[in-house]
Amino acid sequence: MKFLVAYNGSDISKAALSLARTYADLFGATVLVVTSLPGGSGEKPEEIDKASEDLKYAAKYFKEKNIPCETHQLARGMQPGEDLVLYAEQNQVDQIFVGIEKKSRTQKIILGSNAQYIILKAPCPVVSVNSA
Questions:
Q1: pLDDT above 70 coverage of the chain, percent
Q2: How many domains does the chain have?
Q3: What is the mean pLDDT of the segment spanning 36-59?
Q4: Cα separation, 17 vs 43, whole angstroms
Q5: Whether residue 107 has pLDDT greater than 50
C-alpha cells in the first residue's frame, strides 16, 4: 500500500504528515512525501534549500516510527496540484493526504487551489486536513 503526502513544510502540511503516519502505521503502508516546485529560472536557491530541509524533516519524522518513507522534490514545470496528481497516477498511489489552507475567494481565483485540484482530479481517495 502507498500513501502520498502533499508536503510544503507548512503547519497544515505537517498535520497531513502526522495523519499519514498514523494511517501508515495502521495499514503497513509506504509513505511518499512529495513537494512540487515550479522549476526553471524563476526558482530561487533558497526555495530549493527550504524544500530539501522540509523533506529531511519528513523523512526523520517517519523514521522515528520505522515507517517506510521516500521523499521526492519535483520540478517539472507544472502547478503543484497537477504535478502531484500526475505523480500519484505514475506511482499507483492508494491514498493522498493533503492540508487545506483557507483562502479568500479572490486568492482562489488568482492563485487557484492546489488542494482543490488534487481532491477533484486524484486517481485515488484523498484525505484532507484543515486547520479548524
A1: 88
A2: 1
A3: 87
A4: 25
A5: yes
**Range of the structural domain that residue 24 is part of:** 2-130
State the pTM of this model.
Answer: 0.89
Contact (CB, 8 A) for 118 and 84: yes
In 3D space, the residue among 129, 131, 132 whose CA is nearest the CA of residue 6 turns out to be 129
Over 50: is that where the pLDDT of 95 sits?
yes
CA distance 115 to 101: 8
Cell numbers found for residue 24: 501508515
Exposed / middle / buried, residue 78 (Cβ in 10 Å: 0-12, 13-18, 19+): middle
The CATH number given to whatever domain includes residue 120 is 3.40.50.620
pLDDT for the residue numbered 104: 64
Cell numbers linked to 131: 486547520
* Distance between CA atoms of residues 132 and 130, nearest Å: 6
Is residue 55 packed enough to be buried (19+ CB in 10 Å), middle (13-18) or exposed (0-12)?
buried
Q: How many CB atoms lie within 10 A of CB 92?
A: 9
